[in-house]
Amino acid sequence: MSAASAADVPLLEADGLALQVGERWLCCEFSLKLAAGECLALLGPNGAGKTTLLHTLAGLREPSVGRVRIGGQPYAAWPALEAARFRGLLVQQQPDHFAASVLETVLIGRHPHLGRWGWEGPQDERIARDALAAVGLADFADRDVLTLSGGERQRVSIAALLAQAPRLFLLDEPLNHLDLHHQIATLDLFRRLVREGAKRPAGGRGVVMVLHDINLAARYADHVILLDGRGGVRAGDRDSVLQPELLSHAFGHPLRRFEVDGRVTFIPD
Questions:
Q1: Which CATH architecture fits 3-93+168-268?
Q2: What are 111-120's pLDDT values in tens digits?
Q3: Fewer C-beta within 10 Å: the chain N or C terminus?
Q4: Where are the domains of the chain?
């Protein structure tokens, strides 16, 4: 496949996707495509199935109905290491059972790029240090990860994902434990990575992220999947999904839409 044609292949596709856990359907069938340079937000109330959906899109569980493809191929067609280079997942919880330096923790992100018996080299360390700098932790490389606050640990996890350097970022509540400044800085960082990557042939990036803040989704997402917690789902471009009546139904509380200085905001009624 040429570089030009590879760049036209969606990073992520779901065809007729539906998820069931036990006797409960989390979402009925829907389809989506995510191209390089785009951001998709997953929204919905607690327990609606956002993490389960994200893990399905990451290839960690099979869909109940439908298919998922990354880079134009189903996960079964990808060797494990190649899939790990293509897509990276930020999970909600980062357990640290043993002491390790922050730099050592971030270097875990380089493992998909090493051979079976490979060891991190100077280039891997440079990439890891650049990732720490990107999240504002350049001076934390020698700190013990067990001494960090929750917000600092979350930023280390983001740095490890940056060091992995996938084309498709899958983020489960990336704003956990972050204060307002670092929430905006994190979303700005991923938007910048996605926008800049889209300019490189066959090297574009995309982001799928689980968010709880509707207004941040309105600010950063190009597409939205809205789960209502009762099996219903709306998937489409941001402006068609982020409508007061749809959001009010999904979250069980009336919401009103306002536009302030050209930016859409939703406020509980």
A1: 3-Layer(aba) Sandwich (3.40)
A2: 999 877 778 8
A3: C
A4: 3-93+168-268
